[in-house]
Amino acid sequence: MKRTLSFACFAIASLMMGSATFAAPSMVGDYVDLYHFPQYTGVENYSTTVEVVDPGVEYITDLSLYTLDLSETTIQLTSLSDWYSPYFNTGNDPSKLIIRDIDIPGYSDLSIGSIAVDFSRDITPEDDAPMDWPEFSADNISFSGHEVTISYGGYSFPEDSYVTIDLTFVPEPGTVTLLLAGCLGAAGFWRYRRS
């Protein structure tokens, strides 16, 4: 019986972890917060809160430099015209866009577990960036459980260039841990009762 209970616990945990991939989670209907961090000031600024709708573009910059389109599990930045983000020798981090409070409506136990990044190869360091400024790459994108950051400072973006980020959502680590702890506790209780 103990083996059966332990197997059932691990099967349930495996199904939970797999369900995040196969249940087609969707950000549609979620509200996310957009923040900008300009290198010049080094002070993060709240920009706006947008609702994820699909189809439809959620955000366009004031100067119509780029759009930010969020869909079920994808974030895409698309340049509307040629633009660049100046490099400032301030000692602050490069300018970046931070997308916060990313959730799957109805699934509070899911968070971002991994990302896949694709981008235009014609995004290049801008003219005033340091000589050793790195090429734009997937390293310019970072994430945590409910947040994605695009570091664009020091780069030139031609019209129609893009950065696409595909998100994979997984159960929060605490959710699986609690489930396993409960199952293992039940297995221990059953063993105690049998002895």
What does this protein structure show overall?
- The protein is an alpha+beta fold and 195 residues long.
- It has one domain (30-178).
- Helices cover 22% and strands 35% of the residues.
- It has helices spanning 2-22, 173-194; strands at 31-37, 45-51, 59-60, 66-70, 74-79, 83-84, 96-100, 110-119, 124-125, 141-144, 147-151, 155-157, 162-171.
- The protein has a five-stranded antiparallel beta sheet, with no helix packed on it. The chain has a five-stranded antiparallel beta sheet with strand order 3-4-5-13-8.
- A hairpin with a 3-residue loop joins strand 4 (66-70) and strand 5.
- Helix 1 (2-22) runs antiparallel to helix 2.
- It is globular, with a radius of gyration of 22 Å.
- Residues 4-22 and 175-184 have low confidence and may be disordered.
- Residues 170-194 form the Ice-binding protein C-terminal domain.
- This is Ice-binding protein C-terminal domain-containing protein.
- Keywords: Signal.
Identify low-pLDDT runs: 4-22, 175-184
Which oligomeric form is depicted?
A: single chain
Percent of sequence in beta strands: 25-35%
Taking the sheet with the most strands, its summary is: 5 strands, antiparallel
How would you write the strand order of the largest sheet? 2-1-7-11-10
Keywords: Signal
Protein name: Ice-binding protein C-terminal domain-containing protein
Pfam family, one: PEP-CTERM
Domain Ice-binding protein C-terminal: 170-194
